[in-house]
Every structure is written in structure tokens, then in C-alpha cells.
TrEMBL record:
This is Acyl-CoA dehydrogenase, C-terminal domain protein. GO terms for molecular function: oxidoreductase activity, acting on the CH-CH group of donors. Pfam families: Acyl-CoA_dh_2, Acyl-CoA_dh_M. Residues 167-288 form the Acyl-CoA dehydrogenase C-terminal domain. Keywords: Flavoprotein, Oxidoreductase. InterPro entries: Acyl-CoA_DH_C (IPR013107), Acyl-CoA_Oxase/DH_mid-dom (IPR006091), Acyl-CoA_Oxase/DH_mid-dom_sf (IPR046373), AcylCo_DH-like_C (IPR036250), AcylCoA_DH/oxidase_NM_dom_sf (IPR009100), Mito_Isobutyryl-CoADH (IPR052547).
Length: 307
């Protein structure tokens, strides 16, 4: 649920920073949200294209109708799709001069087929199933944004990079849960040949220090960045946010991995909470833009700044 909530909040943040929704449509979303939780998420990845963070344009087609648009295509990894109120679908129009846009589809619309193929290592409860759109009809004013077909319509990995901070925070939460279990294990585990909790040994204390160091520093980066975003600090660049996410993801994965190594086989047992935290945190580096793409953006800005 945390992942789906984070993705919904980033939609609202993007709208607050750069209003682009039709006013009446967004007003409808807000009115519903005042009465109950309303979940929204972008649905962009496709079987043929892969992640749009690496370039390319969608094969899902939006065709003009007498009353609006009809969308047909296939999408992958539609996180939370079974509970989404709105699917923000990336598609190409069938106009003589094609355009690329984001189309808002109600989650209850006719023609949405959920394939229930999600069978993942981690974040299994996110329900990130594949979907097929079969001539899903929406009105004309359900276009969130649209642009001319071409390189400029491809995903901009720098735009709104600060929106990835909630994702980093989510995986830090996973790592903190693993840390709490590690501490409890260390205090409760008393080997017969030792006679006292392993928490008193240098090995476990050193590991606890390493885990704390990684997570504390990562939290400072992520939450410090979030405070600057909230304060509309224009010196907080997308590259700084990307860098914060890269380091936070690395630290979270490494911290949980260290806890696993200290526990040994019990840590990988399916009846151990640490095993689930280990699986979940492996998903951290998978979110777009992935580390190599993010590093390219960070490095490019760093070099351009020293010309």
C-alpha cells in the first residue's frame, strides 16, 4: 500500500509544481479525494518497449471517436491496478500527425483486462499486474497532457526527479524494519556456548554500527531533500534528488544484506520477517530511472558545471 500511496502522491505533486490536468477533471479527482482515498498511477511500461526511461514511444494507440478517445494496447507493471481509481495511460494517437499523451482512464472503465501475471520476488502485495486495454473509451477532456510525436515526447528522466524521494523513503522503511528485527534477534539470541546475547559481541555491535551508519546517512539525504522540495528551494536540482535516491537505495540494500549475513540461514527462512524484507528491498534499484541512467544525468551536470 505504501508504494501505491507514494505513486499517487507524486501525481499530485507534479500537478502542484506544473499544473497540466484539465481543471474540471482534476477538480473531480480532488472532490472524490475529500471524501475517501483516491488512488492514481501512471501506466507506461509496455512489453515491446520496456521502460520508457531508456527512450522510445508507446505502441498503445489512442484513436479519435465522436465523443473523445478509444485506447487499445498492453501495459506491464501497473502497480495497484486492482484498486486504482484512475489509470494514467501513456499512448500514441492515430492522427495524421501522431502525438503522444497521457490519458486518464477510470479504474472502473469497460475494456480493462487485468492479467494477474504479477509473481515477483518482492513487493508481492503491490499487485503490479499486466493489463490489456480493449477499446477503452474516455471523453475528450480526459487528456492529461499531449505533445508532438518525436524525441521531445520521450520520457524526461530529469523532469520531476525529486518525485523519486518517496520511493527512496519507502525502501528505507523496509531497511528500518529489517534493522529492528536484527536488533531484537541480537538481544534475544543466546548461544549455549556463549552464555549471553550475541548483541554483546563485537561482531554484532560492529555490524549494528554499519547498518545504523548507512541508514542514518541515507535518511538525512532523503528527508533533507524532501524538506527542500517542500520549501520550493530552486537550488535543489533534479540531479541532487537522483543522487539521494541512488545512495539511499544502495545503503538500504547493503544494510539488509548485512543483517542477513549476520543471521545466516535463519535469516533466509520463509518464516522469518527478515527474509521478506530482504526480498522487498531488492526492488529498490529497479524503479526507473535505473542507476546507470540516473548516474548519466548526475555526471553530465557535474561535468557541465566545471566547463
Amino acid at each position: 500500500m505504501a508504494l501505491i500511496a507514494a505513486m499517487s502522491l507524486t501525481v499530485h505533486h507534479r500537478q502542484a509544481v506544473r499544473p497540466h490536468w484539465p481543471e474540471e477533471l482534476y477538480g473531480q479527482v480532488l472532490a472524490s479525494a475529500a471524501e475517501r482515498p483516491v488512488l492514481l498511477n501512471h501506466v507506461r511500461v509496455e512489453p515491446e518497449l520496456g521502460s520508457p526511461a531508456r527512450g522510445g514511444l508507446p505502441r498503445t494507440v489512442a484513436r479519435r471517436t465522436a465523443t473523445g478517445w478509444s485506447l487499445t494496447g498492453r501495459k506491464r507493471f501497473a502497480t495497484g491496478v486492482e484498486g486504482l481509481d484512475w489509470l494514467l495511460v501513456w499512448a500514441t494517437t492515430d492522427e495524421p500527425t501522431p502525438r503522444v499523451g497521457t490519458f486518464a482512464i477510470p479504474g472502473t472503465a469497460t475494456g480493462i483486462e487485468i492479467t494477474h501475471r504479477w509473481d515477483h520476488l518482492g513487493l508481492r502485495a503491490s499487485g503490479s499486474h499486466d493489463i490489456a486495454l480493449h477499446e477503452v473509451e474516455i471523453p475528450t477532456d480526459s487528456v492529461v497532457d499531449i505533445a508532438a510525436h518525436g524525441p521531445g515526447a520521450e520520457q524526461d528522466n530529469r523532469a520531476g526527479a525529486a518525485l523519486h524521494l518517496p520511493l527512496a523513503a519507502l525502501y528505507l522503511g523496509v531497511a528500518r524494519a529489517a534493522q529492528r528485527y536484527f536488533h531484537r534477534f541480537a538481544h534475544e539470541r543466546i548461544p549455549a556456548n556463549l552464555g549471553h546475547p550475541v548483541a554483546r559481541t563485537e561482531r554484532f555491535r560492529r555490524a549494528a554500527g554499519e547498518i545504523a551508519l548507512r541508514l542514518d546517512s541515507a535518511e538525512q539525504l532523503v528527508f533533507g531533500g524532501a524538506e527542500r522540495v517542500d520549501a520550493a528551494d530552486d537550488t535543489y536540482t533534479p540531479e541532487l534528488a537522483l543522487g539521494a535516491r541512488i545512495l539511499a537505495d544502495r545503503h538500504a540494500v547493503e544494510a539488509v544484506g548485512l543483517a542477513i549475513r549476520l543471521l545466516g540461514n535463519p535469516g533466509l527462512s520463509r518464516d522469518n520477517p527478515l527474509e521478506r524484507h530482504f526480498r522487498d528491498v531488492q526492488c529498490a534499484p529497479v524503479h526507473a530511472p535505473q542507476e546507470d541512467v540516473a548516474l548519466l544525468a548526475v555526471g553530465s551536470r557535474a561535468l557541465e558545471g566545471t566547463r
